Amino acid sequence: MGDTPSERTVTINIDGHPHLGELVIPGNAQGMVLFAHGSGSSRLSPRNTYVANILHQGCVATLLFDLLTEAEDMYYETRFDIDLLTNRLLSATEWVSNQSYLQEFPIGYFGASTGAAAALMAAAILGENIRAVVSRGGRPDMAMDTLSRVKAPTLLIVGGYDETVLELNEQAYAKLECTRELKVVSGATHLFEEPGTLEQVAQLARDWFVIYLPS
């Protein structure tokens, strides 16, 4: 792709509705990571945007897109409909695969909270077509029945003070049969708002994708 970063807002038509996405392709990109945001969030999530910026430094392209429409996001039930979120992520993945300028990239997923469950379910469905998965403060337990089918190397990142979610991630980790790691960021709560903790998340994610994403 050359050395000049490319940034654009894209529209992905899913289920008859437009979903906006922020696509960034850094120079010499080695792969593409699709972000699946958590409940109540969007493509503009400041935490995911921060992580994406760090991935760009590792020559990883990113697509942050809205899993839900504005109307759908108003309802609690829709925000936690993992099957729906998974299908949206699968549709966005298909869109990436159909773009001639993106087809060369191996694909990975970065999921936060409920988006992590969707990322793991989609990875289980797509098998070796997904090269790597990273979960930030995720709920992989909401995809527990499919975890054994995930082929992609998977990194689970959890805050040390996020005790309930940490326990759920430990249970999910035991179910995964792929290459996997569970990283606990000490001193961090669920949203990694403490100084320096989100930076650790971003660096862990970048290193994981740099290792496992390229073909």
Description:
- By secondary structure, the chain is an alpha/beta fold.
- It has one domain (6-212): Alpha/Beta hydrolase fold, catalytic domain (Rossmann fold).
- The protein has helices at residues 46-57, 76-79, 82-98, 114-126, 163-175, 197-212, and strands at residues 6-14, 17-25, 31-36, 60-65, 107-112, 130-136, 154-159, 180-185.
- Strands 1-2-4-3-5-6-7-8 form an eight-stranded mixed beta sheet, with helices on both faces.
- Strand 7, helix 5 and strand 8 (180-185) form a beta-alpha-beta unit.
- The radius of gyration is 16 Å and the shape is globular.
- The mean pLDDT is 91.
Q: Rg from C-alpha positions?
A: 16 Å
How many helices? 6
Cα(first) to Cα(last) distance is 16 Å
Integer count of domains: 1
Q: Give the oligomeric state.
A: single chain
N-to-C SSE series?
EEEHEHHEHEEHEH
Q: Based on CA inertia axes, which overall geometry fits?
A: globular
